[in-house]
Amino acid sequence: MVSYYLPSASKQGIGYQVHELATELVRRGHHVDVISECPPVPGAVYGHRHVELSGALRTFRFATAVRRLGLSGYDVLHAHGDDYWLWRRRVPRHVRTLHGSCFEEARRIRGAKERLRMVLLGCSELLASVVADRTVVVLPATRRWYPWVHDVVPNGVDTSRFAPGAAGARAGHPVVLFVGAWHGRKNGAELARQFVRDVRPRHPDAELWMVSRDVPDDAGPGVRALGALDDAALADAYRRAWAFCLPSDYEGFGIPYVEAMASGLPVVTTPNVGARYVTDEGRAAVVAPLESVGGALADLLADGPRRAALADAGLARSRDFSLPRVVDRYEELYRPTAPARAAAAAR
To answer: Which residues pair with 246 in a beta bridge?
Structure first.
């Protein structure tokens, strides 16, 4: 597997997904190495090949470094980015996953420099989708930018780890959980502002738990910064909260939505493309405009039966994104076609 990101040094969702996929594949008896700019994940059961870089434009230089690596000993190359220079067949099977679209993100990202970077990365995605033997997207709407891609394989979540807790596991007072960044498209700062404005007046004992590394000390009354949590602590936070909210401008998929739903937690979100897909166009969540998220949360915290109904709908929807089901699909894609098997035999 090729991924610039891994959880050891990055909060990008792609890295967490690669870690989960590689771990599940090893459980099934495969040998897996992850080629990454990030250092090894402590305790990982898969192999790691570190491509160490420094300086500017590392994501683009990483792709050049990957091209120089010896890859012929692998049966499958599964790239989650940065494989656009691998236009000659270097392995029997080359699979590429597009985790959203950088073109789509460029429409919403703030800052001219970041927007240009996203457009350039989008061009690399276009090239990579042609270079690979098989390209997949994680949600159907991404095919708007890559209409020649037909395979849709969503991201997967370990539903044995993210699962409803025992009766009485919820906190004794209203708790809203957020997983993301304070700044940027995740809109953590805006959520905290609306929580103080709209939720606290109606629920004075309510708290907003923010799993984030950049929450300021003066975030507001009831806003509690949890920092970065390990897997066990994060799963526990999902089980204890009353509602989950991630009001992003853009999500290429939105793994935290699935983690929350699999934990039996009702979700409030904005109508970004990833949330709409994961929540089945709002059938398994409350989808509200960004400016109305605070009011939607206050209403939901006051309505126990509605929270229970949304939790049931979300739990049922989350089964479509269970990690074993996703890996089953990838194993099908890893199997080479008849011409590829013949070419491999000839080599």
So the answer is: 269
62-84 burial by CB neighbour count: b if 16+ within 10 A, else e? bbebbbeeebeebebbbbbbbbb
Inform me whether the pLDDT recorded for 88 exceeds 90.
no
Mean pLDDT value across the chain: 93
Which residues make Cβ contacts (< 8 Å) with residue 96, sequence separation at least 6?
78, 79, 80, 83, 128, 129, 131, 132, 134, 135, 136
The residues that bridge with 176 in the sheet, in sequence order, are 208, 243
Give the model confidence (pLDDT) of 190-217 as tens digits.
999 999 999 999 999 999 999 999 999 9
What SS3 class is residue 1? Answer: coil
Average pLDDT over every residue of 24-43: 97
Q: How many CB atoms lie within 10 A of CB 53?
A: 15
Tokens found for residue 176: 């809203």
pLDDT of residue 336: 74
State how far the Cα of 43 lies from the Cα of 30, in Å rounded to an integer.
Answer: 17
> Shortest CA distance to 174 belongs to which of 208, 211, 220, 224?
208
Q: Which residue has 């109606």 as its token pair?
A: 202
Which segments within 153-241 are labelled E, that is strand? 175-179, 207-211, 223-225
The Cβ of residue 266 has, within 10 Å, a number of other Cβ atoms equal to 27
Task: Evaluate the CA torsion angle 19, 231, 10, 39 in order and state its sign.
Answer: negative
How far apart, in whole angstroms, are the C-alpha atoms of residue 152 and residue 132? Answer: 15
> Lowest-pLDDT range, 124-128, 206-210, 288-292?
124-128
CA–CA separation, 316 and 123 (whole Å):
37
Question: What's the pLDDT score for residue 168?
Answer: 77
Q: What is the DSSP pairing of strand 286-287 with strand 47-50? A: unpaired
Q: How far apart are the first and last CA of the chain?
A: 22
pTM over the 0.85 mark: yes
Average pLDDT over residues 121-138: 92
Q: By C-alpha distance, which of 282, 277, 253, 252 is closest to 267?
A: 282
Cβ pair 266, 310 in contact under 8 A: yes
